[in-house]
Every structure is written in C-alpha cells, then in structure tokens.
From TrEMBL:
Keywords: Aminoacyl-tRNA synthetase, ATP-binding, Ligase, Metal-binding, Nucleotide-binding, Protein biosynthesis, Zinc. It holds the Pfam family tRNA-synt_1c. This is tRNA glutamyl-Q synthetase. SUPFAM superfamilies: Nucleotidylyl transferase (SSF52374). The keyword Transport does not apply. Belongs to the class-I aminoacyl-tRNA synthetase family. It comes from Amylibacter marinus. Residues 7-274 form the Glutamyl/glutaminyl-tRNA synthetase class Ib catalytic domain.
Amino acid sequence: MSKGTPIVERFAPSPTGLLHLGHAYSAITAFQGARGGRFLLRIEDIDFNRSKPAFETQIFDDLHWLGIEWEQPVLRQSDRKPAYEAALKTLWDQNLIYPCECTRRDISIASAPQEGHETLLGPDGVIYPGTCRHKTRPEDYGKSALRLDMHQLNEAEFHFTDLERGQTTFSKQQAIDSIGDVVLARKDIGISYHLAVVLDDAFQGVTHVTRGADLFEATRIHVILQRILGLPTPIYRHHNLIRDDAGKRLAKRDDAKSIKSYREAGYSPSDLRKLMSLGS
Ligand code: GLU
C-alpha cells in the first residue's frame, strides 16, 4: 500500500448466530479505524447449511444500534461463487491444489499419535498427513474437496504486519510443518473460508483487517494465498479476545453475551462500549 492510499476497513460477520461482545469490539474498532476512509460490511454466508436470513437481519440491526454505518450495497459471499470457482481453476492449472477424498476418520487414523509423537494441530485443525497428495492427478477435480499443496509453493518466506504484534515472518518449511495442506474447497460448499476471505478482501480493496486474535494463526494461510494469487496483503490488527467472567472466550453459542440480549436487558450502546473498555 502506498503512502496516502485511503484506508478501507471491513467487518465480515457470518450470519450463523447472534453477534456477541467480541464482534461488537471488532466492528467498532474497524469502524473507528476507517475514519476518513471507507468502512465496508461483508456478509460471510458461504456456509449455506448454517447461515440464516434472521441472523443477517439481526446483524444489521445490532450494528445500526451500535452507531455503525457502512457503504451500500453489502457484499454477500453467496453472490461470489463464480469468482471463487475461477480462482480454484487458476490454482488447479498451476498444480497448486489436489483433490482429497479423505474423511475426518481417515485423517484422524492416519495422524493418530505414535509413540513419542503427538497429533499436530495447525490453524485449520489436525495437520493433514498428505495421503491424497501422492495420488495420480485426475483430469479434472469434479466435486472433491481440494487441498493446497504447500510443497509446491515458490516462495521461501512470507511476511505480514500486525498493528498489535509487529512484523511476522515465516518460512515455507514452517508452513508445511505447522499448517499443512489446508482445504481450499470444502466438498459440501465448494469453497473454504480462507480462500473466500482472501479473494473478497482483495476484490473490495480492503487495506486494513481488524479481527479477533483467534484468527492470527490463520492469517499465515491468507498471506500464502495472497502471494500465490498475486494479491496485496492488507495490514492486520488482531485484537485480544473479549472473555466472559470466567475467562472463557465468547462463542456464538453463548447467547447470554449476545448484543441482542444486552439490548433486551436495557443496556445502551455506551454501556456496552464501557463494558468493552472502548472509548465513545
Ligand atoms: N466471518 C468470520 C467470522 O465471523 C470473520 C472473518 C474475518 O474477519 O476474516 O468469524
């Protein structure tokens, strides 16, 4: 990003549950970070099994109530399928992805802890043992899940900047060892969060990504995808997670901490800001 480029921030919730205090924190911080620039809202509804229109309506309502304004029209991932398919085709033509037919059970058996070795977990769950990487490549990938072949990466080193943690550098070998061949297209929905988010941030010209620290490790996957697709890397800010009174991180399942339930209990937007230690 060159000096003087206007800031483009975004908030990208999934309409799979109620927004909670952690989402409010991300949305307000991103909105404030965009002052003088642009603020976008993106609805991440690619997981059609779990996304519900009622949650989307509630997201708009909660954000308005918090005093957040965004540009229209709102981008929905469900409208972006052709762009996702085109990117997968490009990666396939470059030999960077391969079909995978393994079930969760196959993967857990193949990566079961051996004596002296624990099962390795990466930002996307159990690190894939590579079973299908060694199979003969079919003519076409059909409807299988597709995995990124980390061994095929051209670059030896990757970098990104986080406003809270500074510069992070990692090598291709670290990506192979600690991330593994992540799924870029799930069999059920034909795409993954990682690829969609990278394509959408670039498509919308996002310069700054503000989100919870739970996604910090996944950012390494996003940076790899940006390099192989020739896309810019935004500046990231992964903020600390808001925790409940017992110190547990908030999840969508915890309806008790949802913005909706605070509203129903009579809290004002400024009460919520105080609760999150955010200035007005
Ligand atoms: N849609 C994701 C979520 O709701 C956030 C993705 C992101 O900010 O990159 O957890």
